[in-house]
Amino acid sequence: VEYGSLTCPTCARFAEEGMEPLLAKYIDSGRVSYELRNFAVHGPVDLVLARMARCGTTEAVVPLSDQVWKNLGTLMAPIYENPASLDGAMNQPMEQRFAALAQAGGFYDFFAQRGISADQARACLSDVPAMEKLADDTQRYATSDGINGTPTFMLNGRVLDGINSWATLEPELQRAGAR
């Protein structure tokens, strides 16, 4: 299990260097199962990106998340360059604020190019209970699983301390029997 934030640069680095070998050598061969759990350490932008990545099929979540990580600088630039747009979005009524944030960040075009239409994304982002669940999941992971940062990996029910790169994760997988 990877607890990851879609706005986390270290998670992005892991996705860039580690996802391909993890998939090719371990997941596709059936030796390792993988689950991405969104851990929204950076607030509403994290929630919006996570929800948009989960707007399509279950099988698309990891590839869409990888695309977010590969384009993190470009995606975050409008938010960093215009923090007032984030404030304006967050002042909208709850059922409109996340869609407004996605608009301010230019996220609709990014996801539309990857199969999530703007209408589909707006519907996902206006689903307040689903957005609240993502936020609640982060709190639950922190409390019940002891997660306090990203990326954090759990292997066979054990949180791996100090593992934030492929070079440090692969030996742990091998020690656990994945060869």
Itemize the secondary structure elements and their pairings:
Layout: E1 2-4, H1 9-27, E2 36-38, H2 44-53, H3 61-70, H4 72-81, H5 83-90, H6 94-105, H7 107-112, H8 118-125, H9 128-144, E3 152-155, E4 158-160, H10 166-175
Parallel strand pairs: 1-2
Antiparallel strand pairs: 1-3, 3-4
Helix pairs in contact: 1-3, 2-6, 2-9, 4-5, 5-6
Short description:
The mean pLDDT is about 95. The protein contains 10 helices and 4 strands; from the N terminus they run βαβααααααααββα. It has about 180 residues and is an alpha+beta fold.
Backbone structural class: alpha+beta
Order of helices and strands: EHEHHHHHHHHEEH
| Shape type | globular
Q: What share of residues are in beta strands?
A: 5-15%
Helix content: 55-70%
The overall pLDDT average reads 95
Tell me the span between the first and last alpha carbons: 18 Å
Main β sheet profile: 4 strands, mixed
What is the number of helical segments per DSSP (H or I, 4+ residues)?
A: 10
The strands making up the biggest β-sheet line up spatially as 2-1-3-4
Quaternary organization: single chain
Q: In terms of per-residue confidence, which ranges show pLDDT below 50 for 5 or more consecutive residues?
A: none
Number of strand elements: 4
* Rg value: 16 Å
